């Protein structure tokens, strides 16, 4: 009994000391050296007031769940800022009808958008995450950013805006757009102007006018995205080099799935599924590019086009097909049976090797316009197709396998 009393007393004293120590730490109000408080937008009269409360050194603005209607842009003029929501439950809706964006990440004061080099008011590291941004037919872009290096947009839904979903205008260093949903915008879903070392990954694009533009840039890495139902084109790349479009699903664009134009070089289009679009990959002005390991299925016309301003192209390991299922069966009905092949127009220095062309309603290889030269067409399989590859001038036709129609099982 005596020992029990002493044990109980010792335990109580120890517990008291522990609680006292805990209480003292809580009352000290000490904080981590260098830490800045989170700005809770719910404690401010407006979202703009919360953004304006970010100190010059940067910080985070946390926007709660709710629908927030704005009639003029939310302006972020600083840097090292993170604007974060609570997922799609944080909904910023732009009611502006004068073409103004919802979020404007632009420099403060007067500026010349066309400025170059050191005359640009470059800012660094702005992050937008976990929210929904919508507009209307007369509003502007969902997110408009000018001269922001290392911009990072992720977990964002950008829909129904009158301009582009996201416009990154000379956001030169390392822009990243990941894990987002970009839909139903009247212009371009994601418009990249003058950017480089770009990552666009794991993002859904649906029913914008065009899904993505990459203009006057380089080193685009576009991988693992899903593009569907665009009113015009999927991916438009111009005056851009050293880039890769790989591992994407591009389906049912009324225009072309991918276009390379205006002095593109050193780009790769690889391992994509390009299905049921108006046209497939159009190389209008591209050199030194590879088109490899793609599946081109039921393209209405021109699954792959190489034009007179393009050359030095490698085409290998692709499959050009209809909806054949085996045993003489096809999935698509007679009114949805079109399947295009490769079209060459006045191009030169092209290798076409190791591809399968099967069940196409257009010739596997078709040449139009000026004669194409120095074309190597070898080691391909042609099944249930017609082809004009043997009519190419100044070219090489190696050994290709062409079984009789109906022989394929």
From TrEMBL:
Residues 188-326 form the Periplasmic copper-binding protein NosD beta helix domain. Keywords: Lyase. One of its GO terms (molecular function) is lyase activity. Residues 389-400 have a biased composition (Polar residues). Residues 389-409 are annotated as: Disordered. SMART domains: PbH1. The keyword Signal does not apply. Pfam families: NosD (PF05048). This is Pectate lyase superfamily protein. It comes from Maioricimonas rarisocia.
